Structures are given as C-alpha cells and as structure tokens.
UniProtKB/TrEMBL annotation:
<dbReference type="InterPro" id="IPR013800">
    <property type="entry name" value="STAT_TF_alpha"/>
</dbReference>
<dbReference type="InterPro" id="IPR008967">
    <property type="entry name" value="p53-like_TF_DNA-bd_sf"/>
</dbReference>
<dbReference type="GO" id="GO:0005634">
    <property type="term" value="C:nucleus"/>
</dbReference>
<keyword id="KW-0539">Nucleus</keyword>
<dbReference type="InterPro" id="IPR000980">
    <property type="entry name" value="SH2"/>
</dbReference>
<dbReference type="InterPro" id="IPR015988">
    <property type="entry name" value="STAT_TF_CC"/>
</dbReference>
<comment type="similarity">
    <text>Belongs to the transcription factor STAT family.</text>
</comment>
<dbReference type="Pfam" id="PF21354">
    <property type="entry name" value="STAT_linker"/>
</dbReference>
<keyword id="KW-0010">Activator</keyword>
<keyword id="KW-0238">DNA-binding</keyword>
<dbReference type="InterPro" id="IPR036535">
    <property type="entry name" value="STAT_N_sf"/>
</dbReference>
<dbReference type="GO" id="GO:0005829">
    <property type="term" value="C:cytosol"/>
</dbReference>
<keyword id="KW-0175">Coiled coil</keyword>
<dbReference type="InterPro" id="IPR048988">
    <property type="entry name" value="STAT_linker"/>
</dbReference>
<feature type="domain" description="SH2">
    <location>
        <begin position="552"/>
        <end position="653"/>
    </location>
</feature>
<dbReference type="InterPro" id="IPR046994">
    <property type="entry name" value="STAT5_CC"/>
</dbReference>
<protein>
    <recommendedName>
        <fullName>Signal transducer and activator of transcription</fullName>
    </recommendedName>
</protein>
Length: 749
C-alpha cells in the first residue's frame, strides 16, 4: 500500500507511463461496464465496439492466464521502479520508460516476425509434403506402366503392337511430369531451407538480445544488489521471452527434421543434403546456448560464507517448463571451487571431481511449480563443513581469497533427443571461520561486486578505480546497511576523500580524477592509525545500523566531520551548542563536541570533545538518553533545541516505588559540567560518574560526590577516556541487578 500511495503522487511523464501499464488490466472490465450502460442510437454503435474490444482482450487472457499473472508482476515491479526513480533521481523518468517500452516493443515485434516466419515455413513444409506424396504416387504409376510394358513381351506381336504405343506415350508423359516435378520439389526444398536460414538468423539475433543483453543486465543488477543496490527484479518477463525462444526454436527444429525425413524418403541429387545438415547443426547450437544460458542462480548464496553455518541458494531453469524437463526431474549438485578451478572450468579443462571444500546437503531435485510455470531447485540447508585454501600471493590475506559455488546438472529434452550438461557459477564468495573476519571479507565482496566487468576471467577486478566510482559503491552500501534514503552527501564524500588521500582540500573537483587502489582501500592502514580506510568506514556503518539509524535519518548526526571542522562550526554558536561526529581515532565510535566557557580563563570559550561512544556503550544507555542526561547540551547544531530533536527517543520515566523499593537508574554525567549535587531525598535517580570534561585543563575544584580527576585520564589528544569510568558504571549496574541477599549477606532492607 505504501508503494501505491507513492505511485499516486507521481507526476508528469512518470505518472503517464505508470497509468499506461494498467490499460490492459482495466480495459476488459471497464469496456464491459461501459458497453452495458450505453443508450440511444450513438450509444448502440459504441456498445457494439466496446463489447468487441472487451471480447478480444478477454479471449487473449482466457487462453493464457499465466500471461496475465506475469503482466501484473511486471506492472508492480515497474511501478516500484518508477516511484524509486522519481523519488531518488532528478533525471526525468519518462525518457527512461520510453526507452524501456521501445526496447520491449522491439523484442515483441521480433517475436511476432518469428511467429509469422515459422508459420510460413510450416505451410511451405506441408505443401512440400503434399507435392512429394503426389510425386511418389505418380512415380509408382510410372513403375506400373513400365511393368505393363515389360509384360507385353509375353503377348503375340499383334497384341503387343496394338497396346504398346499407348503405354509408351503414357510413360513418356508421366516421366516428363516426374522430371519437371522433381525439379519443382528440389526448388521447394531449397526455398524452404533458405527461409529456415532467415528464421534462424533472426532467432540468433533475438536470442543474443535476450541472453547477452537482458539476462546479463539482470545478473549485473543481481550483483549490485549484493552491494545494496535496488532489487534485480523478477525473472518472469525474461522467462516468458526465453520460453517463446524455446518454443520457436523447437518448432523450427522439428520442421528441419521433417524436411530431412522428406529428403531421405525421396532422395533427389543436389545441395539440399548439405544445407539441411548445416541447418540442423545451427538449430542445435541455438537451443544448446539457450538451455545452458538459462540455467541460472535465482537466489545467490551469501557472499561472505562462514564455515559450519547453514546457508541457502536457489537455481532455476528458465525454459524447463516449456521443454518439459520436469517430466524427468533432474538433480542439481553444489560444489565449492577455487578461483583457479573456476578459470580451468571456463577453459573446458578437465576439472572433474575437483573441489576446494565439503558442502553438506549439496544435492537437490528440481521441482516444477504449476502455478508459476517455474522449474527450480531450492537448497535450504547447505553448510560448508570444511575449506581447502590455496597458496596465497604476496600480501593477500585469507579474506581476499575468492571461491565460488558451482551448480551442475544433466537433463534431456525431446524424449532424450538432446542431452545437456549444464553448469553455472555463483558470485564470488569469501570463506571465513570467525566473525572477526567479516568486515575484511565484506570489503573484498564489495570491491568485486562494484567493479567486476562482464565476461571477465574469474575473478579478476581492477586494482584501482576512480574515486567517484568508489563513492557510488560505498554510498550504495551505506544506504542499504543503514536502511536509509539519506545517503552520503557531497560534503560527506569530501570528508572521506580527505581521510583516504590524507588531503586537506575541500573542493570536490580535486578528487574527481583521483584513483584509489585496493591496497589503499583495505590493505594499508591510514596514516597514524592501526586500521584501514574500509575498516573505519565499516565501523561507522555498523554503529549507525545498530544504534543510530533513527538519528541519522532525522539528520541529527553530521557524522563525517573532523575535530577542526567541528571547532570552526561551533565557535560561532551560543554556548551549549553541540554536534555529533564520528571518531577519527577509533573504529565504530561517535563523539559529542560542544562549545562552552573555558573554566580556566574567564570570558574565553572553547570546544570540548567527549571520548567516543561505541556499541558497548549504547548497549547500556542509548544516545538519546545520554544527550538528555547532559544538561549543558542545549542546542543541536546549528540551533535546534535538543529536546525537539531527541525527546521522542528518550526512555520513559521509571515507575514509582513498589513495596517500598525504588528501581535504580544509571545516568551519565560529565563532572566539569554538573550543576548540582542531587538530593537523594528528592526521589531523583542516583547519578553516576560516567565521564569528565574532555578539555586539557587544570581542575581547581571538584564536586563533592565525584573523585578528583587527574591528567592521567587524558589521552594524547587531550580527551578524557571514558572507558575507565564506564567500567565503574557497568560494575555498579551489575551490583544493582543482583538480589539484595547476595549483596548484603542476607540482611533485609
């Protein structure tokens, strides 16, 4: 319903294109309704026309209801894509839809031309068969005449002379007719062969468009979907095209076989035998290419594959139903092979029984689904029991080694006329044995999915790419992981470029022609850090996905801002203004920067930075609650009251005391900015020392309930390390969770 509401809000060409999709569905009912309500003389004529149109449409869908199902699916998919493109892109959708409609129209026109050509050759073949049968009858007549002439030798001369001239004349007439008709039959055969050549030429062209363009594009969309791109879309339209190809190919193959049978039945010297052999070879190549190319992976196995973990995959044969493969359901086997083994396989080198590991539950029978007309095998419970790694090259780590799942099967079509060995390879997978390897494995998969070129040797990818290309890839991944329409802005990407290239330029154009290597991406550590560019970025994604998603979607997190930029932005704002930025020094950390008075110098203001929060911190108390705790934080940059932004995420107040017990609550404070010592008698929750002022200053005073702070708690950047104080908080929280008896030796409180 959400898509339908959005679809109703489309405008201009996008709306027009979407409306046009529904014409076929609504016309039948609407035309019938309109026809029933027409009155008057003009209405009578219109009623006849409308009824005729409705009957035509109804008869079309009555014969092939599955086409209606596919039409509906296509409408829904296209509707979603239209909404997505109209929402996310400033470019006109109408032009893209026009292009797609034109392409589909060309494909459908080619199918119509193929149908007419096939019908034409069917008619010619029947005519040829009829003429040949009549020729054989006349040939038998000539043999009968010849037998009669031979029998005349036993007659008296007078009788022979009386009957022989007529028989000789009749034989001459029949033989002359047979000679002419033999030439005619030969011409028919040659004409039919030439028509079949034309049909097969068009078939090859149509099949190339569908398999090498449309299906390859679908596979590319499937690969990008692995990086968080839009869904690749259903296979129903592609399957309908492939089934039409299969049907047309099979009809022409049967025609060529019948033509060959007619030639064998009545051999006539000439080039037809060679032509028919060529046609038969060509049509076999065409159907072989169709069958082997349409054995595809509908649902890919996970590309980061952990051993001893259950995973699933689905393979599908797009022409299985049309070729009746399901009458003898084939079995599919899954095997994991290395990059080198995949290369050898594509070179047709002998790799039988080669594998790089053991997969449990790796055999599955293909099932035919009558309602959808699909033939597929669903591997639901596979598990990689063990993996055999190859010798690594240079600096390559285990998380850079690529494998693939090989799916293979064998089946026959046409009553065992043709037997096919089919194989297909999954997208590259990286095998890990521990969750700590996941982020580096994901980097390998991301780079491969983003920059793999069609038709590559497995699994070659460029070693370096243009920075804008990488920006597209990581932005796609970020939006998918965070599940947000708010992607990375140009300012965010400039920040990332500065980090990646150790640059200070704020001009996006300075980075457009720069390239980033794989080593820079996830092999070499960033300057002065012990982690790579990807590891830092992946940490940001994970933190945002798990704990900060609503705040990122609200625009409350600037995130991609360095310490100096934060200071420049805050110094022009009133005291208490703060912003949230991702930590430069820690993977998966976010810090609060705010502007306030310098306690050591009257009248001077400075920017303070809290030590970064990580996932372990937010598992204790959420970001919104922590911001609520800190009373000195007043305005979210640039000038939004913090409660206006975060209050909807605050944890509701605890309930009142029950049976004389008050439930404790942990709250965060920064000692330098605590304004009062809470009064326990007031019923307020107990405050815990969760941190301190992160400024590198001396502390002339302390508050009564807080321990004195020493400079040893400061890090090299002059920030306070909250880890120690967080340990205190966790310890107290643990104590508070224990039963009273265990804490106080069984005394009643």
């Amino acid at each position: 319903m959400a898509v339908w509401i959005q679809a109703q809000q489309l405008q201009g060409d996008a709306l027009h294109q979407m409306q046009s999709l529904y014409v076929a569905l609504y016309l039948i009912q609407e035309l019938q309704n309109k026809a029933e309500h027409q009155v008057g003389e003009d209405g009578f004529l219109l009623k006849i026309k409308l009824g005729h149109y409705a009957s035509q449409l109804k008869s079309t869908y009555d014969r092939c209801p599955l086409e209606l199902v596919r039409c509906i699916k296509h409408i829904l998919y296209t509707e979603q894509r239209l909404v997505r493109e109209a929402t996310n892109s400033s470019s006109p959708v109408g032009g893209m839809m026009d292009s797609m409609s034109q392409k589909y129209q060309q494909i459908n026109q080619a199918f119509e031309e193929l149908r007419l050509l096939t019908q034409d050759t069917e008619n010619d073949l029947r005519k040829l068969q009829h003429n040949q049968e009549y020729f054989i009858i006349q040939y038998q007549e000539s043999l009968r005449i010849q037998a009669q002439l031979t029998s005349l030798a036993t007659l008296p001369p007078a009788d022979r002379q009386l009957r022989e001239p007529a028989l000789l004349s009749k034989r001459a007439t029949v033989e002359a007719w047979l000679t002419r008709e033999a030439n005619t039959l030969q011409k028919y055969r040659l004409d039919l062969a030439e028509k079949h050549q034309k049909t097969l030429q068009l078939l090859r062209k149509q099949q190339t468009i569908i398999l090498d363009d449309e299906l390859i594009q679908w596979k590319r969309r499937q690969q990008l979907a692995g990086n968080g791109g839009p869904p690749e879309g259903g296979l129903d339209i592609l399957q309908s095209w492939c089934e039409k190809l299969a049907e047309t190919i099979w009809q022409n193959r049967q025609q060529i076989r019948r033509a060959e049978h007619l030639r064998q039945q009545l051999p006539i010297p000439g080039p037809i035998e060679e032509l028919l052999n060529e046609l038969n070879s060509t049509i076999t190549d065409i159907i072989s290419a169709l069958v082997t190319s349409t054995f595809i992976i509908e649902k890919q196995p996970p590309q980061v594959l952990k051993t001893q973990t259950k995973f699933a995959a689905t393979v599908r044969l797009l022409v299985g139903g049309k070729l009746n493969v399901h009458m003898n359901p084939p079995q599919v086997k899954a095997t994991i092979i290395s990059e080198q083994q995949a290369k050898a396989l594509l070179k047709n080198e002998n790799t039988r029984n080669d594998s790089s590991g053991e997969i449990l539950n790796n055999n599955c029978v293909m099932e035919y689904h009558q309602t959808t007309g699909t033939l597929s095998a669903h591997f639901r419970n596979m598990s990689l029991k063990r993996i055999k790694r190859s010798d690594r090259r240079g600096a390559e780590s285990v998380t850079e080694e690529k494998f693939t799942i090989l799916f293979e099967s064998q089946f026959s079509v046409g009553g065992n006329e043709l037997v096919f060995q089919v194989k297909t390879l999954s997208l590259p997978v990286v095998v890990i044995v521990h969750g700590s390897q996941d982020n580096n494995a994901t980097a390998t998969v991301l780079w491969d999915n983003a920059f793999a070129e069609p038709g590559r040797v497995p699994f070659l990818v460029p070693d370096k790419v243009l920075w804008p290309q990488l920006c597209d890839a990581i932005n796609m991944k970020y939006k998918a992981e965070v599940q947000s329409n708010r992607g990375l802005s140009e300012e965010n990407l400039v920040f990332l470029a500065q980090k990646a290239f150790s640059s200070s330029s704020n001009n996006p154009d300075d980075y457009r022609n720069m390239t980033m290597t794989w080593s820079q991406f996830n092999r070499e550590s960033l300057p002065g850090r012990n982690f790579t560019f990807w590891q830092w970025f992946d940490g940001v994604m994970e933190l945002t996905k798990k704990h900060l998603k609503p705040h990122w979607n609200d625009g409350a997190i600037l995130g991609f801002v360095n310490k100096q930029q934060a200071q420049d932005m805050l110094m022009s704002k009133p005291n208490g203004t703060f912003l949230l930025r991702f930590s430069d020094s820690e993977i998966g950390g976010i810090t609060i920067a705010w502007v306030a008075e310098n306690p050591n110098k009257a009248g001077e203001r400075m920017v303070w930075n809290l030590m970064p929060y990580t996932t372990k911190d937010f598992s204790i108390r959420s970001l919104a609650d922590r911001i609520s705790d800190l009373n000195h934080l007043l305005f979210l940059y640039p000038d939004r009251p913090k409660d206006e932004v975060f209050s909807k995420y605050y944890t509701p107040p605890l309930s009142k005391a029950v049976d004389g017990y008050v439930k404790p609550q942990i709250k965060q404070v920064v000692p330098e900015f605590t304004t009062a010592n809470p009064d326990p008698a007031s019923g307020n929750p107990t405050y815990m020392d969760h941190g301190a002022s992160p400024a590198p200053v001396n502390h002339p005073h302390t508050y009564g309930i807080y321990p004195p702070m020493s400079d040893s708690m400061l890090d090299a950047d002059g920030e306070f390390d909250l880890d120690d104080t967080m340990d205190v908080a966790r310890h107290v929280e643990e104590l508070l969770r224990r039963p009273v008896e265990s804490q106080w030796g069984g005394q009643q409180s």
